[in-house]
Amino acid sequence: MKKILIIEDDPIVAHIYRTRLEKEAYSVETCADGQSGFYRVHEFCPDAMLLDLMLPKMNGIEILKKMRAQSKFASIPIVVFTNAYVPNMIQEAFSAGASQVFNKATLTPRQILDSLHLLLNGGKLTADPSLMGFSGPGSTPLGGKPAPDPMASLAESSFSGDASHGSPPPPANYSYAHGSPRPFSEPSNATNPLRALQPPVSADDSAFHAELHAAFIASKADTLATLRKHLHDLTKASDEASREPHLLDLYRKVHALTGSAGIAGFVDIAQMTAALEVLLKELSEKPKNINASTLRTVAHSVDFLGELFKLSEARVGELAPANILVVDDEILSRRAISYALEKANLKSVNVEDPAVALKMANEEPYDLIFLDVQMPGMDGFELCTKIRALATNKQTPIIFVTSLTDFKSRAKSSLSGGTDLIAKPFMFIELTVKALTLVLRNRLIPRRQAA
Q1: Judging by beta carbons within 10 Å of its beta carbon (0-12, 13-18, 19+), is residue 145 exposed, middle or buried?
Q2: Given this model, what pLDDT does residue 29 score?
Q3: Are 265 and 336 within 8 A, CB to CB?
Q4: How far, in Å, CA of 391 to CA of 393, rounded?
Q5: Is residue 103 part of a domain?
Q6: Alpha helical stretches, state H, 265-366
Q7: Cis amide leading into 425 (omega within 30)
Q8: Residue 108 pLDDT > 60
Q9: The domain containing residue 61 runs over which residues?
Q10: DSSP bridge partners of 7
Q11: pLDDT of 418-446, one tens digit each?
């Protein structure tokens, strides 16, 4: 009997994987943190491992490096699942010796079973990272060296949450022609050896998924109540010291929700919480970035999860492409916004001339519009007012991204029809979360009206 060790800090997700693997006659043990998991490896001597990267006490990258440095663990299959919004960790995982990396927000038990079966029987992995839910800038071929990441030199400042040095854009030679992430795709048997070599989904699989779906539905009310309590405690905290435990509590709950929503097939919820958990983690690691803007973004996201819980449905398939317009006369700012949007698989059209942007807004509807305030010829407030007069984008969410954060500017942003405002310099992940919230909320409107 093959032995599998699961190192996962969320007990519900760990239990689900354990139950499914035991049905396939694997001997399975679980550990809830990186340190105990690393110690247990030496005692249990597993034939393969499932490893979350975002772990307490010792993260998954450290575990990978320590294990691969020991000859007896140099070649055992290690399947990693992580958050697709932290691309540098994905690359580090492959460099440290991961056999395969999955996007946790879209990972299913069947994918785990197929992957382990292939790896334990000497199969070769696909070389296309998009099939595992990763592609585009900074993606890494499975089993190979990390592809050059055009944002590598900016990773620390952009995804560490350090907004004190501004919001650095991608390098000038960065191309947006890369393929975008496809976290919601279901690869065909012709292109995915994990599916091609395995039988179709069995009745046991269908029953198991139905059970997961029902359990997730049953837990939604309690989950939402807990999220709102942690958010309330966080916003009422008076200083950094008292805020820290509530921020960590909220992060842990959102982190767990990403895994459980993904397993149950609620990809809209999983995509939203995957981005939110990264924002919360960055804020907990660098509390100086906690301000009115970031707290408002977190609060809006938690409120929106309440809407998703009511209207989101389990589904398979890619997220329909969003149509986003970015208007800013500074090329560096446009690149920074576009890069942040690509983290959520959101493509954008960039325009520097507000007059051209107004013409475009008159010709077609957009899912979301970003505006700078200080632009030559027509400032953002005037442009927003004129866009609101157009039938095509009268209700489109509009976000101002500006260095003007005084009360007068905030008031003018609201009076001109703006939906929200993000202050420069901004955290990339905050903009990603805010954009996801507004795009997904806009798409829920027909369901809300039908309900």
Answers
A1: exposed
A2: 95
A3: no
A4: 6
A5: yes
A6: 267-285, 292-311, 331-342, 354-363
A7: yes
A8: yes
A9: 3-149
A10: 31, 51
A11: 898 887 788 899 999 999 999 988 887 66
Angle ∠(297,304,357) on CA atoms, nearest 5: 65
Both 306 and 328 in one domain: the answer is no
Q: What are phi and psi of 368, to 5 degrees?
A: -165, 145
pLDDT in tens, 119-144: 988 765 544 444 455 443 333 333 33
Both 347 and 258 in a single domain?
no
Q: Please say which residue of 252, 287, 311 terminates a domain.
A: 311
Owner of token pair 């446009």: 334
3-state helix, strand, coil in the chain (%, to 5): 55, 10, 35
Query: 142 and 44 in one domain?
Result: yes
Residue the block writes with tokens 């499975």: 142
Tell me the DSSP string of 291-317: SHHHHHHHHHHHHHHHHHHHH-----S
Q: Say yes or no: 64 and 8 in one domain.
A: yes
Q: Is residue 160 part of a domain?
A: no
Residue with tokens 């990390």: 146
- Helical H runs in 24-126? 34-44, 60-68, 87-96, 109-120
Under the banding of pLDDT at 50, 70 and 90, the label for residue 201 is very low
Q: Listing from the earlier edge strand, what are the strands of the sheet with 348-351?
A: 348-351, 324-327, 368-371, 398-402, 420-423
Tell me the pTM.
0.75
Closest C-alpha to 51, from 1, 124, 2, 107: 107
What one-character-per-residue DSSP string does 175-232 give?
-TTSPPP-TT----TTT-HHHHTSPPPPHHHHHHHHHHHHHHHHHHHHHHHHHHHHHH
Q: Give the chain's largest Cα–Cα span.
A: 72
- What whole-number percentage of the chain has pLDDT above 90? 42
Distance CA 397, CA 37 (A): 45
Query: Which CATH number do you get for residue 428?
Result: 3.40.50.2300
Distances from the Cα of 216 to the Cαs of 208, 260, 266, in angstroms?
A: 12, 7, 9
How many domains, in total, are found in the chain?
3
Instruction: Give me the pLDDT at residue 127, please.
Output: 41
Token pair for 120:
């334990």
Going across the sheet that includes 100-103, the strands are 27-31, 3-7, 48-52, 78-82, 100-103
Evaluate whether residue 274 is within a structural domain. Answer: yes
Reference 260, options 195, 305, 327; nearest CA is 305
How many helices (H) and strands (E) are present in the chain, helices listed first? Answer: 16, 10
Q: List all residues 6 or more positions away from 285 whose beta carbon is below 8 Å from its beta carbon.
A: 160, 161
Can you say whether the dihedral through the CA atoms of 87, 137, 429, 286 is positive or negative?
positive
User: How many residues in total does the chain contain?
Assistant: 451
